[in-house]
Design goal:
- The chain is of the alpha+beta class.
- The protein has 7 helices and 12 strands.
- A 9-stranded mixed β-sheet has the order 11-10-9-8-4-7-6-5-12.
- Helix 3 links the parallel strand 2 and strand 3.
- Helix 2 packs parallel to helix 3, helix 4 packs parallel to helix 5 and helix 5 crosses helix 7.
- The longest helix has 20 residues.
- The radius of gyration is 20 Å and the shape is globular.
- It starts with a helix and ends in an 8-residue tail after the last strand.
């Protein structure tokens, strides 16, 4: 039984998984980096933007392998969705909508719903689309008597003009993990609780009404529920990081990508506090 990070480092480990409370990620991560030990840090990578930047610098300057545990990247439904978007199956992407809600998790005490849950949706949205957030506007409420927010509703825009919408809370008895991506050829629906991916295709709407002929509407077309391999996401995440440490793969969420997610989460909180839309440039600087 070990009681300190130093005792763990003294064992001569190749890498460590940092799964302590979010507020301790920076302290533990910096100790590992200073000792030359790689790390898979649970999401979010840090509780502040400044802390996340210090972690990025600490690991990058030493050439160490480090990643962030944004486990939705390993969900079979989202992996399949990303592959299909990259292949152009949806055509131009118009909108990404996520809903993530359920009962309050009593193990979380140091951050609110934005940093704990909404970071999942921020990361997966940027990851599946390959785009960056350029603006965000949000509202939050705190109804559980805790100092942190427990519900957030946010809308934003990605670098290619795609609209995004996130609804996240700890106040619902219904547990939901929903992602929809709508584009010119239809709509993908991913349920990450069951790892199911469904495609609803567009069907052209013909009209003889001359005044409406210029409007290109759609109607319900075919529906396809894909049969996809369903491996356990946590196992996949750890296999990918192991392979990255061994130099076999680089398919992990990097600390720099994790930093970007923390920057967007901070912009969500800033927007809710100020009542304004927060702009982010492609490099992640909010204004």
């Amino acid at each position: 039984m070990l009681s300190t990070v130093d005792e763990l480092i003294a064992l001569g480990i190749d890498y460590a998984v940092v799964a302590c409370p979010t507020a301790l990620h920076e302290e533990v991560g910096l100790k590992l980096a200073e000792a030359g030990v790689g790390a898979l840090i649970e999401k979010p990578v840090a509780d502040t933007v400044e802390g996340a930047r210090r972690l990025v610098e600490a690991f990058e300057t030493r050439g160490l392998v480090a990643g962030v545990g944004h486990i939705e990247r390993c969900n079979p439904a989202l992996l399949s969705l990303r592959t299909r978007l990259e292949a152009g199956e949806l055509g131009d992407v118009f909108q990404v909508v996520t809903r993530r809600q359920g009962p309050f998790p009593h193990r979380i005490a140091d951050v609110g719903v934005v940093k704990d849950l909404a970071t999942h949706d921020i990361d997966l949205t940027a990851w599946v689309t390959g785009q960056q957030y350029t603006s965000i506007a949000a509202h939050t409420v705190s109804k559980s008597g805790r100092p942190h927010e427990d519900m957030v509703s946010a809308v934003g825009k990605l670098s290619d003009g795609t609209m995004v919408s996130h609804l996240v809370n700890w106040l619902s008895p219904l547990k939901e993990r929903f992602t929809s991506v709508t584009g010119e050829r239809g709509c993908f629906i991913a349920d990450t609780l069951t790892a199911d991916l469904t495609f609803y295709s567009n069907a052209a709407v013909a009209t003889e009404w001359e005044a409406l002929q210029a409007f290109r509407g759609v109607s319900e077309g075919d529906m396809i529920r894909y049969a996809i391999p369903k491996r356990e996401p946590l196992l996949v995440e750890h296999e990918l990081f192991r392979d990255a440490v061994l130099g076999k793969s680089k398919d992990i969420c990097t600390l720099r990508q994790g930093l970007r997610t923390v920057e967007v989460a901070a912009a969500v909180i800033d927007s809710a506090r100020s009542g304004t839309t927060v702009r982010l440039d492609p490099e992640g600087v909010a204004s």
